[in-house]
Amino acid sequence: MGLSAIDEWAIVSDGGQVKPVLKILFGAILFCGFAWLGWWIWQGDGETFSVMIRGEKLPEPDPARYEVLVSELERWQQELGARYQSAATDREREAIEHDARVILELVMPEMMYCWLGTGYDFNGTAEKPGEGPVACGYFVSTVIRDAGFKVNRYKLAQQPSGNIMRTFLPKAACQLKVGADYDSYVDWLEGMRPGIYLIGLDTHVGFIINEGSGIKFIHSSGSGPYGVVAQKREKATALKVSNWRMIGSFSSDAGVIRTWLRRETVKVKN
């Protein structure tokens, strides 16, 4: 059997014996290597390592697709808005509101996915996926603005999560639970109507996408892996550890849909 490179390096000429000092040195290198790998996995909650061993590519921001989606959604907003303005009956308007909700629920999550892999910074204000780091509030406010809502994204992003939600939703539509058991809470979320939700936590804000078969928490994470992520319930650490959770349905709220169709300016709650 042939010798490996390590074997050849370790063996010396005096009878083929390995010098003790080389054994110690090689062992130290292995120990340091595994220690570093363990720290790396811990920092990234294991996600980066699991992706690496599966041979998959990590998400990369997709600004080009984002621009296409923004443009398409603007076209739909113009078309549906014109129909809404000329509608003669409540039944016609309700049908257009339904169509608008369907379009938003199809396109907005795809816009969010374009941000995956964008880095996080507490002061990050990136306007497009991957052009720089983005804080949680700026991620939420930018996606909402680019979806066609006329809102000051800077002012909105700088508000506490409760104010961000109340900017779009009435108080009665924002459901607050404090200290709820995590698994029971997520079970409750998964039982709600499929769609796009805004969620505010102790010191964080993001989107919940209820897909009917489960949820995804899409947010700019201030902990590992430090960036925009879409996490299922098992990986959504920020959602799990938060004591304060307020949620409201963004896409099924009639006021939100009408604001979008009429292109009304949204006044930020502060």
TrEMBL record:
Protein name: DUF1460 domain-containing protein
Taxonomic classification: Bacteria, Pseudomonadati, Verrucomicrobiota, Verrucomicrobiia, Verrucomicrobiales
Organism of derivation: Luteolibacter algae
Superkingdom of the organism of origin: Bacteria
TM region positions: 21-42
Gene3D superfamilies in alphabetical order: endopeptidase domain like (from Nostoc punctiforme)
Keywords of the record: Membrane, Transmembrane, Transmembrane helix
